[in-house]
Design brief:
The protein is built from four helices and nine strands; from the N terminus they run E-H-E-E-H-E-E-E-H-E-H-E-E. The chain is an alpha+beta fold. The chain has one domain: Gcn5-related N-acetyltransferase (GNAT) (Aminopeptidase), CATH 3.40.630. The radius of gyration is 17 Å and the shape is globular. Keywords: Acyltransferase, Transferase. InterPro entries: Acyl_CoA_acyltransferase, Bact_Acetyltransf, GNAT_dom, Streptothricin_AcTrfase. This is GNAT family N-acetyltransferase.
């Protein structure tokens, strides 16, 4: 497949958000502390008895278009992927040096992969990998030392994908989501 990748400004977020981020959770990682955590943490993949659809955009206050009014996006970038018909088929949103975005850890040497999505019919065809390569290129252009990526313990496919792209699991936050205590936040890092 022939893909064209472009860096775009955040004003494209409304059309970027037309691509669904939804996925079906069929398994999840259970975090098992060894020796009360002193022996480390074990991630064990467990099938979900009743698979369910996760759609972050459907949650209150979430979604690309809403980000325009929530943060100062001057240091953000959208990596957009287009097919031969110039149809948007995927992309990623990157954040850098943005006060109030705790995900960036108050660091100016880290970029964050805020969001990545590919149209379902194009998933598994190398679009995500191409987007990731362009995202890494952008983070390097900002002289960042790392690209940070957040996933949840019910997004096993994303965890595997980021690991294949060279990311390593940096932190596990077992109690990150007050409204979803069974989920953990998994923070991945790509050293640049």
């Amino acid at each position: 497949m022939n893909i064209t990748l472009k860096y775009e400004k955040p004003d494209v977020l409304p059309s970027y958000g037309d691509i669904t981020i939804a996925f079906v959770a069929t398994s999840e990682y259970h975090i098992e502390p060894l020796e009360q955590g002193l022996g480390g943490l074990l991630l064990r993949e467990v099938p979900i008895e009743r698979p369910y659809t996760v759609d972050y955009d459907a949650e209150k206050g979430r979604g690309p278009e809403r980000w325009l009014n929530r943060w100062d996006l001057r240091n953000w970038c959208v990596v957009s992927a287009y097919n031969e018909q110039e149809e948007r088929i995927g992309g990623a949103v990157l954040a850098y040096d943005t006060p109030g975005v705790h995900f960036l850890e108050d660091r100016t040497d880290i970029a964050g992969l805020w969001d990545l999505r590919v149209k379902p019919i194009f998933r598994g065809q190398g679009v995500g990998k191409a987007i990731m390569e362009k995202a890494v290129e952008w983070a390097r252009s900002k002289e960042c030392k790392q690209l940070k990526i957040e996933t949840q313990s019910n997004n096993v496919a994303a965890c595997r994908f980021y690991a294949q792209q060279g990311a390593h699991l940096g932190t596990i936050e077992r109690y990150a989501y007050e409204d979803k205590p069974h989920l953990a936040r998994l923070n991945w890092y790509i050293d640049l």
